[in-house]
Structure formats: structure tokens, C-alpha cells
């Protein structure tokens, strides 16, 4: 079976690997679509820890073609989205439902084979059926949208909130729509690339230039979707007194920003981080299914497995391209 | 000045009353539009306690034409929405922000003169400026939408919720849109009047026939917007295990429904009531302003003060008419 | 191995059953102590559905004496509390963390062998280590306290709350202490049995006679711990406007109470039910360990397995005895 | 009337000022006790903005001796605690209940005369009656305890939380007790002064040396009560993954700490600040009244107005003295 392998930082290959076999509680999926995530790129570039060598791809939708003995035969032929986190279920974190901090976490597209391959075997507890009205490509967005819902859940969105999002890539555009769907009355969004802002406008956002003069203390909620420390370090000034700031983007592990604790105290600010997802795949699928979150406009390219290297090269330029989401389609042929 | 007076249950008159004068902290508004609320009708019919005789109208938008000595002259000429609750500020409830339970509450359109009149004097702390892009008629919906936001805040809406609303009158249609705007992925709505369901569909709802077979335990959140005890008494069966039920409609004060406490326990249900509004006018105006909540389609009639009696007669038939919201326009002439 | 079996409603026996064997992910516990719960009694009397015949006992603490191949050998010799719910992990409820509504739930002391036996085999994901400073008897209270914390979590306790609890049995006395530990400033508690009220007083409660004259609308939070419909039906009148009511007690499945929906609306009341527990064993053990919740004073009797029939007979009299918690000690001999 | 005046940074005087007269909505209080707060000291030293010259003292309890025309004559002779924030009621912040960010805020002990004087006139909406079982000295702690409850409300305390507090001054010792009363199972507390730790232990805390080896990632909630940037900058390492950090102490306005945004993201940390109080005086009085929070042990000195200069000098040494709370008693004579 053909699969992408990230061999070590900066080196990838398209190889033949043994056909995955569904264990007793597993379903074998034919991969229909697998989104390329910013964290895949960070990991490939060595900026985020990864279990080299491995088969990446954690935003996966596919069709069940075989199943283990403990699975329901009626699943075969149906389409599913993969929850990439497979919890141990025993550790202190799992016991309180914080599976994103499982001390023995297995991850599809990490230490478990991911979806940048023709097929993948997935534990049935990690599969969510795709509604009929959604394409597999759309369904593959359930994972990043679940991360977005998890993040918004950490910081909270209140009815009527005025929100600022910095970064209009695929995550920024999902945050934009999820914020509107969670009660925001107005979402301002900033990016260097006009084409991305154009997409943001089409999805309900208002372009913002981050001018301090006009934006100072103006937002109930401010969200970073860039991972750039120089951006993140300036965000508190955009939050109103009593406001909230969400660090969603992935900054370099060793970067620091200067924070004034007096400002946090005196202006009663709250800063929250969020990591991965927990239980949000179901709600994410429903919001995509209802049209509340539109994902098709975010697909800027489709690639066969052979096209991943090219797709990665698009991203490797400081986020100045107009590319939003590359969807890997293993059944495509170059 | 011409004003409607509810003299006693079932009797109203259109009379000349003394011109209101703005006190030191008050603004005199020329009433642009004042919505007719179901509770006005309940009160008129004697089904809800009211301070007869009084000038009703608590969903008011108007233009400032004069102001007392403590007010800002720049307010003159601007348009404002009225928060109908004027708190005492001293009582135990006010001190903890529950102004809807103020022990010495004054209410515009209750014990204070309301908006079914040519002009009304309002304390400046009860005025919210209308954004330029909204008509006064649209802005007058800020009050009922604020009540809806307050109700949803009492029971909570979570991302991806499946919601059932019974009743597609003006409140039901605001609940529908506010639920979608608060995270609901799908809102089902039931009503006896096809035309109302048609409006509901246009605003994003899905018509529902309340069949127990297809709806049993199917919803995360169930909301009554009818005030009919026979409806309210059957709502728990539509909520999933762990689900929530909101009593928004105004049932007769002496009606009871049978509730099975074992069902509440075993299925971990939550039932909440909600009364009036507290601090939600600002968010309501913002959500109308952003287009997240569309109110123009809810206006089914405009009436001069002379038309109120006729408008009340439309409603006095068990909710089977297609009327949704009557907007009183004091400047209209019959 | 000796074990209690509930054969069918009203009939129990003490029999020899095959020795349990720890499966690969299981630990075999020597049962140190197992509390007798009101729901055991309800089930025995046929008032609550139960999988007859079965070995009851779901409030269990024991010492690990053997373990399956996937378990850590260092667990042997340590003491553990049992989480009685073993989730399937696959169903819609488990995926969102509502394991108390697992559609394929296994329960120790229900369809899985419980702790009214000499030994019990338990899945390692259901075991929580007992801190050294706690006796096994004290630790066995972690399960009912976890249910209490789950219930308070459903309805919420706010700093300074004035709380009324009806029923001063073992659950009422845990609710009392958990409410104080969660922010209540004053907890009033009612019971027919003076000795129970005396214990309540010792644990920080204030005796209350439920007089409507002195208690009307007086409490932020009202909790039923009786399961008596006639009590439950009168609770809303004790809650202040905006107050909350928790149905913790188990009423007969077919009983109904009359509820005035206008009252729920006008006084903005919230009623919540709660069922079982989810993730609260850890916090419960910590609160017992810290002394915030004192459980030793709740133990009114210790019984060998032979003594269960006698213990049940104490309870079978409408709650008028002074018995609070019977602790079954399988190692005791009559 | 004798009163303390802070003339400008570093200079204070004890002078005769005109007798305050109660306006129509005001009550004249004879000051019984007024606590000296750390922020008084900061302001006096010029480290916190203050409206020089002014009469400080915002933790005030006194006895009503006269009242304006709109006040209830039955208030005379009763004792009251002062809520120091007098809101404008009109601004955007007041309208949503965030009176601590009122744009036209008046503060007793700031731009309004405070309690370091023989008498003070206070608006009736800012007065809370003292329960009979509390001394005025104890009641004067309602204000700092309300700030503490407000802070804990911003960050949240969950049942069973393990909490670390740095600083065992009067605020640290109130945080300690409020955290226990809000669900904490174990509160660790650090300070340089052994006598303070001794008091902390008596109030339920566990002394902690902040060793990174034993405390790394060990706490659900970490709270700064020092205002020292070097302390605050090291706190995230003590929080577990998913943990929370509260900045309660007042750092110098221009100080910054280095924060690693990757750490916030990857470990899903939440940092919150809190400023002043909003609506927590009532709950604070109730928790002091119930004994849940013991304040008498925090009083380390009582001073007549003449003694303030001496009291300030105790504090002016980097927090290394064993002084906790100085209570100013205007009726004392030197």
C-alpha cells in the first residue's frame, strides 16, 4: 500500500508499506480525503516534536471496507471521520476526560499510522459517521473544527461578543465561522494576504489592519491564529477591560513574549491556551452539516500523495501565499 | 399628548394625557416604534397582573427630542432603545445584579408610562443608542430579543445542540435565530399555523410535528414558546438523557402540569424558567445589527395608536392567526 | 467464595460462588468494606430496576491481591476504591463523557459482580488508589460522595449560598458537607429523626422544620434527599426568586408531582436532576482525605455478609430509624 | 472631625476636616474599624495611581448615626459595611454589571472620603448590614474577602482542586480560606516569614517551599498574592497541564515577565487577572458570619488614627515582617 512517510525533519518519501489489517475493534478505512494541517508542516520542519519516522495525516475521512470481530458489520460501506486521539483510558488525565493530556496517548497520524496513505485501520471508538449530505472532503474538516470548538470552549464566547482574529488561514477561517456560530456579533480578522481576507469577508468577517489607534481595547475576545510571537506579544492591547485572549496558534517552543502582570490584574484580562481536541468531533460534524460552518471554500488545492512535497513547499514561506487548505486525495493519480 | 391607556382588564382607551417632561436624568423620546408583546395582551386580558390604569408599551425605540440637566446634550437627535426595567439599585436583588427581581421595580409600559404614546420620558440609564444601520422598528426588537438571550443564558446552549422550539410566534422566531446564533446546529420548530412555519423555515428552522415516535428523547434543548400547559406538560419526553428544557412561554398562573421526579432524576434533566431581561439589550442590538438575527420579516402589521384595539383582536383567538408582530407607530394616522 | 446474591425482589441469599479471576486488564480485590446504599435497598424491594439475580455492592474499597497481564504488578498490595461504572467507550454518550448514560453500561454491583462478596475482579480503569491516611471504610464513601459532587455540579453551588437539604440520611449528610465545601455559607437540614439532626449539627448543619412561614423563598438552593414525592412536590416554595432545586432522592418511577409552570417562569427557578456519577471519584477521595468531608461519623453499623438481611430490615421502615450507613465487612464473621 | 489625609506620595497628615453631612440618599457612619490594605500602602508609596490629596480607608465598618431624607430611619443605630465602589450606573461597563470598570467610578477611600476618619457619609446602595454575631472589626474584612471571592470567580475553583498560593499576608490567608470554602481539597502556601506560615497552617494550609523539584506541574490552581514579578514569572511551571493561574497581587505597573506562548498552548493553561470587586460583599459577609472564613486571627495590630504612620512603616520593608492586618480604630486614643 502506498503511503507518505516523514522520515526525519525535512525529509519525506512516498513508499510501499504493508497493508494495514483491522484488529478486533478496528475498522479498515479506504482514505477518501485527508487534510494537510499546519502542525504537519511544523512537525516536518522540525519545529514541533514528532515520532519520526511516521505516516502523517490526522484530518481523515474514509470509507469502511473491512472490520474486526468486535465491530458491527453494518459499518462496512459507510463513511467515517477519524478522531485522531486514541486514549489509554487508565491514566489520571483520561479518567477526568482530559484525553488530550493522556499520559500514554496514541495519535493517528503520529505514533499510529495516519491518513496520508491509501488505507488506515482505526479503532471503532475513534470513528464518527459522516452525514449523507456531506462530502468526505468536507467531513475531513471535522477534526480541525473540533480543535477550534475546543479552543473557543476554553476561553468562552458570549452572545454579542466583538471578536478579533489574527490570521486568516484555514484555522483562522474556521475560528471566524465558529465564533459567529457561538454568538459573536462581529468578527474582525487580519491577514497579510488580500485573497485570504476576501475569503474571510465572504464568510462573514470584517477585514482589520490591527491599527492600535482604532483597535485599542476594542474587543471582547482576541484570538491568535498565526503562531507568531511578535503578533501574540501585542494582543492584550486589543482586548477591552475584562476581555479575553486565546492563544490558538503554535509559537516556537522556545519563544517568549513580554507580559505585564499589572495589565492582566488592572484590566482583569484572561489568557487561555488550548491544545488539540477532546470531545468535539460530533458537534463539529453537525455544524458543518447544518451549513453554519462552510468548509468547501477553504479547499485551495487537492493533491495525490505524490503532490504532498509540492504542497509543503507552498507553505514554507512564512504564510504569505494564498493557499488555505490542501486536501490530500490518495485515490488521485498525478 | 395622545396615548393608549389600559383602564382595567378588557378595557382600553385612546386619550389625551399631559405631556411628559424630562426630569434631570431623563430624556424625552418621540416614539418611533413600539412593539406589541404577548404579555401586553395577557395583561389586557387579565391573565397577567398589571397596574391598571397604565400606558403600555415596553418594546420602544424613539428619537431624543429633549433632555434633563444631568444628560448629555449630544444625545438630542439620536435614536435610542428603552430598557424597560428601571431598578431601585438598593435592594438585595439589585445589589447582586438580578434587577428583574428588584423589590421596588419600575417598568416603562407598566407603572411608568410606556411607549404606546406619542412621547415618553426615560431615565438615561435605560437608553441604548440605535446603530445607524438599523431602523427604529428593527431596534424595537432589542427588548424581546434581550429576553430571549436572557432565557437562553439561563438554560445554556452548547455548540452543535439540536433544539426543539414549540411555538413560532414572534418569540419563537427570535428564539430560533438566537439559538442558531448561540451554537445550535439544527433547530426544529412546531406551530399550528403553516404561514408561521414558512417564516421559520426562511429563518433557518425545520418544521416539526411533535410526533412522539420520531422526536422522543431527540433534543439537547427543548423550549416552550406557547405558554400552553398541555404543551409544556409533554416537553420532557422530547429531551435526551441529560437534556435541558426552558419554560419561556407564560402559562396561566394557576395551571399545574404533572411532573415525574423519577424522570428528572433518572434522565438527569434540567428545567429552567426565565423572567424578563437583565443586561442583554446591548448584545441584542449588536446581533440585530450584524444580521445574525433578522427581525424585519417578523413584522406582520403596523398600526397607529388607533389600531391597537384591532391588533389586540387578532391575537385573541388562541394563537391561530398568522399574525406575528404588530408594530405600533404613533406617528401614523389612521 | 462467599457472596450475597439478590435473587429476585425481596429475596436474597448468602451463597458460595466461583472464585473471580482477574482478566488481562483486571485486578482482583479482597473486599475490605462495601457500603450499603439506599439504591441497593430500593432495588432489593423491587422499587428500582435491577438485573436479578446479581451480587450487589457498588461502594467498594479493597486490597489488590492479583492482577491480569496488562496490569502493573506494583498495584498488588495497594488499596483501591471502585468506580462502579464501566463504560463501553463507543456509544454516543461515552464519546461525549456522559458515561452515566452509556448505552451498554456495565456496573459493578449490578450486571457485574459487586462488592458484597469476599473478592471482586475489577477493570483497572475503574480503580482509584486509596490515600494512606484513609481507612478502607472511609474510602468506600468515595462513590456516594462522587454522586453527591456530580449532583451539585449539575445544579451549581455559589459562594455564600444558603442551602436547604431535606433528608439527613447518609446522602443528606454528604450533601451537607459537600455543599459547605463548595461555598455554602449556611446549610439548613430537615429530618424526622432527632438523632440524624444531631449528627447533621455536628457536621455543620442547622436543623430546619420546613415551616413555610419561616422558610418561604428563603434559600438559594434546595435539595431533596428523601425521594418522597410529597416532599419533592413542595420544594419550589422554599427557593428564592432565581433559585435552584436539585432532585437527588429517588422517587417511585410512576409518581408525579404537580408543578406550576408559571411559577418556574415568573420566579426564574431551575430544577435539575442528577443520576449516578461520571468523573468525580478522584475529587471525592481528596475531599475525604483532607477532612473537608467527614465520613466516619456516618457509619452506624458494621456487618458481616451474614448481617445484610438484618441491615436491610432496619431500612425497611420509611426512613424513621436512626441508621445512617451500614458498612458491609466481608472479613467479619458473625 | 479628625481624618487621615494622604497629601502626596510619601506624605500623610492627621488633620481636622469639615464634618461630613449625609445627602438625601446617604447615611452618616461613625467608623468602628477600617482595615489597612496593601493597596493603601502602594498608593501612599506612589506605586499605584491615587487622587492626592485624599482620605484613604476602603475596608470600613461603622454604625449609622444619621441619614438623609430618602433613607430608612430604621437604619440608624445599625452597623454596616461599606462597598467602596459607587457606580455611575450609566456607562457601558455599569450596564453590563462590570462596575469595577465604571468609566466614572467614585471610590470611598479614593476620590470620595474614606474610613480613616471619625465619620464618613456613604450612599445607601453601598451599605450592607453587619450580622449581629460579627464584630465590626470582623465585618471590615468583608471588602478584602469580596475581592478574593471576585478573583476566585474569575479563575474558578473546582471540587477537589489542589491549590498553591504564594504569599501568606492578609490576602493570601483570605485566599487560602476562600479556596478551601470553594472546593479545594488541599491548599499549599508559601511565604518567607515563618510566623505567617504558622497562621496559615492554623487556618488549614500546608507550608510549601516552592521547590521546583517537588511542585512542578503539581497544582490545579496557582495564585500569586505577592505582586512580585520574579515570583509571578515562575508560576506557570507549578500548574498542571490544563491548569489555571490567578494574578491577584499588584505588580509594578511597568514590570514585565517573560511568558512562553507555546507553553500556554501546549499545556492548555489559563491565566486570569482580577481587579477589585463587583457584587461579592453579601457572600463575603455570610462566609465570615458562618465561620467558613476566620478573620480575627489575621488582625495583628489595632491603631488609632495617630498610629497609621507607624503601621505604614511596618509594611515598608519588602513584606518581611510578621504583620498581617492592621485595623484602624478611629475611636482609639493614643
Let me know the largest β-sheet of chain A: 7 strands, mixed
Summarize the amount of helix of chain A as a percent range: 10-25%
Query: Beta-strand percentage of chain A?
Result: 25-35%
What's the rounded overall pLDDT mean of chain A?
A: 95
Order of helices and strands of chain A: EEEHEEEHEEEHHEHEHEHEHEEHEHEHE
Oligomeric category: homotetramer
Number of strands of chain A: 18
Distance between the termini of chain A: 16 Å
**What's the shape of chain A?**
globular
How would you summarize what this structure contains?
Four copies of one chain form a homotetramer. Chain A is an alpha/beta fold and 334 residues long. The first copy, chain A, contains eleven helices and 18 strands.
Outline the secondary-structure elements.
The structure is a homotetramer of 334-residue chains.
Chain A: E1 2-8, E2 11-16, E3 26-35, H1 38-44, E4 59-67, E5 79-82, E6 85-86, H2 92-95, E7 106-107, E8 119-123, E9 127-129, H3 136-139, H4 142-155, E10 162-166, H5 170-181, E11 186-190, H6 194-202, E12 206-207, H7 212-215, E13 219-224, H8 229-232, E14 239-247, E15 257-259, H9 261-266, E16 270-273, H10 281-290, E17 299-303, H11 308-315, E18 325-328
Walkthrough of the structure:
The structure is a homotetramer of 334-residue chains. Chain A is α/β, with parallel strands linked by helices and 334 residues long. Chain A is built from 11 helices and 18 strands. Chain A has helices spanning 38-44, 92-95, 136-139, 142-155, 170-181, 194-202, 212-215, 229-232, 261-266, 281-290, 308-315; strands at 2-8, 11-16, 26-35, 59-67, 79-82, 85-86, 106-107, 119-123, 127-129, 162-166, 186-190, 206-207, 219-224, 239-247, 257-259, 270-273, 299-303, 325-328. In chain A, the strands form 4 sheets. In chain A, strands 3, 4, 5, 8, 9, 17 and 18 form a 7-stranded mixed β-sheet that branches. The first copy, chain A, has a 6-stranded parallel β-sheet with strand order 12-11-10-13-14-16, with helices on one face. In chain A, helix 4 packs across helix 10. The longest helix of chain A has 14 residues, at 142-155. Chain A is globular. The mean pLDDT of chain A is 95. Chains A and C meet through helix 2 of A and helix 2 of C. Strand 15 (257-259) of chain A pairs antiparallel with strand 15 (257-259) of chain D, so a sheet runs across the interface.
Amino acid at each position: 500500500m502506498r503511503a507518505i512517510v516523514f522520515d526525519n525533519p525535512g525529509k519525506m518519501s512516498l513508499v510501499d508499506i504493508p497493508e494495514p489489517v483491522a484488529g478486533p475493534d478496528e475498522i479498515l478505512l479506504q482514505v477518501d480525503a485527508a487534510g494537510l494541517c499546519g502542525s504537519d508542516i511544523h512537525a516536518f520542519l522540525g519545529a514541533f516534536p514528532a515520532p519520526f519516522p511516521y505516516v502523517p495525516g490526522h484530518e481523515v475521512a474514509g470509507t469502511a471496507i473491512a472490520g474486526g470481530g468486535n465491530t458491527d458489520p453494518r459499518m462496512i460501506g459507510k463513511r467515517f471521520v477519524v478522531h485522531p486521539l486514541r486514549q489509554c483510558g487508565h491514566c489520571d488525565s483520561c479518567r477526568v476526560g482530559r484525553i488530550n493530556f493522556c499520559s500514554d496517548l496514541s495519535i493517528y497520524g503520529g505514533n499510529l499510522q495516519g491518513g496520508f496513505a491509501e488505507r488506515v485501520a482505526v479503532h471503532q471508538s475513534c470513528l464518527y459517521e459522516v452525514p449523507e449530505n456531506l462530502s468526505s472532503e468536507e467531513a475531513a474538516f471535522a477534526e480541525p473544527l473540533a480543535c477550534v470548538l475546543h479552543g473557543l470552549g476554553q476561553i468562552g464566547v458570549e452572545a454579542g461578543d466583538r471578536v478579533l482574529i489574527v490570521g486568516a488561514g484555514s484555522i483562522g477561517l474556521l475560528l471566524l465561522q465558529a465564533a459567529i456560530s457561538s454568538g459573536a456579533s462581529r468578527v474582525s480578522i487580519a491577514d497579510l494576504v488580500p485573497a485570504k481576507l476576501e475569503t474571510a469577508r465572504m464568510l462573514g468577517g470584517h477585514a482589520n489592519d490591527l491599527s492600535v489607534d482604532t483597535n485599542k481595547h476594542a474587543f471582547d475576545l482576541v484570538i491568535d491564529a498565526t503562531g507568531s510571537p511578535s503578533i501574540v506579544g501585542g494582543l492584550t492591547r486589543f482586548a477591552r477591560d475584562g476581555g479575553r485572549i486565546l492563544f490558538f496558534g503554535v509559537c516556537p517552543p522556545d519563544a517568549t513574549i513580554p507580559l505585564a502582570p499589572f495589565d492582566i490584574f488592572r484590566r482583569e484580562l484572561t489568557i487561555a491556551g488550548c491544545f488539540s481536541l477532546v470531545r468535539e468531533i460530533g458537534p463539529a460534524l453537525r455544524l458543518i452539516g447544518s451549513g453554519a460552518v462552510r468548509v468547501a471554500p477553504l479547499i485551495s488545492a487537492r493533491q495525490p500523495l505524490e503532490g504532498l512535497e509540492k504542497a509543503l513547499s507552498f507553505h514554507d514561506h512564512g504564510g504569505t501565499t494564498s493557499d488555505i487548505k490542501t486536501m490530500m486525495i490518495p485515490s488521485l493519480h498525478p
